[in-house]
Amino acid sequence: MNKSIAYAHCDGPCGIYDPASARVAGEAVLSMTKKMLELNCPDTGNSSQMASYLNTMSRYASVKEQQAQLCKEELLVLWTDYFKPNHLESYPDLHDLFWNTAKLCSSCKTEVSIEHANELMDNIKQVHTIFWETKGRDVAWYTAG
Predict the structure, then answer these.
(1) CATH number for the domain including 129?
(2) What is the pTM of this model?
């Protein structure tokens, strides 16, 4: 019997890993956080305007929380499936980076903090840089927003 080893981010052996999906989710978290902080609360006595405000705010919050969770899941796949012990030799702070970034995802879900959303993006940028260095490639960091 011929045995092969497959490395993948899921049960399929595609072998495709890329921190871009975490970046996109992180950008959505940052965008929704900004929108929540910029949304002006109307006169609470105007039920029509208040209903519209609450609807918009709840939609922003829902997207922010969903994208923070997705960001965490994408990062955890990289942390647990892509990065190997030899990467820790080159990047001894890798576990701390991923631990702190996953914790930031959780904070961004439960808070409306522009500081944490920006810190999340900074950490994702570090993951991006390290990831591509491990592949011997220079892939520029960019954001869609």
Answers:
(1) 1.20.120.400
(2) 0.88
